[in-house]
Amino acid sequence: MSGTNDEELRALQAALAAEHAAVYGYGVVGGRVREERRVEARAAYDAHRARRDALVRAVRDLGGRPEAAAAAYALPFPVPDPAAAVRLAAELEDRVAGVYSDLVRAAGAGQRRTAAEALREAAVRAVRWRGESVAFPGLAERAGTGTPSVSPTA
């Protein structure tokens, strides 16, 4: 495998890990968010599951072994109420956008387009949850988080 494919495979695995974490996180969001936002949470959950499944296929297509989801993930902060659930949803989208920005840089033409679409979708969902946008989705948020995904618990 060439260095370019290795870089793309690492970026795909990072995106896959972020999608696993997002699927887990949206399970928490859906259980805590207000009734009027549950449809939005369910749509995001379904979108992340679909992206996760596509990434599994992409990793296999490059000859890699897809990273499995952890049994549980440590959330970045407690989520005791609907307001915290909304903050968590925005945080999940910011983190997913960050790994997709890395994938845009590392991927070949076909996968780059898919990664850019995923980055855009995550940025739009983050704006909907947060109620405001950021200048450079997928980049500015990375400076504050230091990590591309919610951490698996040991």
Please provide a written account of the structure.
The protein is mainly alpha-helical. The protein has one domain (3-67, 78-145): Ferritin, core subunit, four-helix bundle (Ferritin). Helix content is 69%, strand content 3%. The chain is built from five helices and two strands; from the N terminus they run H-H-E-H-H-H-E. It has helices spanning 3-32, 38-61, 82-106, 109-130, 140-145, and strands at 73-74, 151-152. A two-stranded antiparallel sheet has the order 1-2. Helix 1 (3-32) packs antiparallel against helix 2, helix 1 (3-32) runs antiparallel to helix 3 (82-106) and helix 3 runs antiparallel to helix 4. The longest helix is centred in the first third of the chain and has 30 residues, at 3-32. It is globular, with a radius of gyration of 15 Å.
Low-confidence stretches are 141-149
The DSSP helix count reads 5
Looking at CATH, the homologous superfamily is Ferritin, core subunit, four-helix bundle
Second CATH tier, the architecture: Up-down Bundle
User: Helix share of residues?
Assistant: 55-70%
Instruction: Identify the CATH class.
Output: Mainly Alpha
Main β-sheet: number of strands, strand sense, barrel status?
2 strands, antiparallel
Q: Quote the average pLDDT.
A: 89
What is the tally of beta strands?
2
Number of domains: 1
Order of helices and strands: HHEHHHE
Going by helix content, strand content and strand pairing, the class is mainly alpha
Rg for CA atoms:
15 Å
Distance between the first and last residues' Cα? 32 Å
Strand adjacency order, main sheet: 1-2
Q: Please state roughly what percent of the residues sit in beta strands, choosing from under 5%, 5-15%, 15-25%, 25-35%, 35-45% or over 45%.
A: under 5%
CATH topology: Ferritin
**Silhouette:** globular
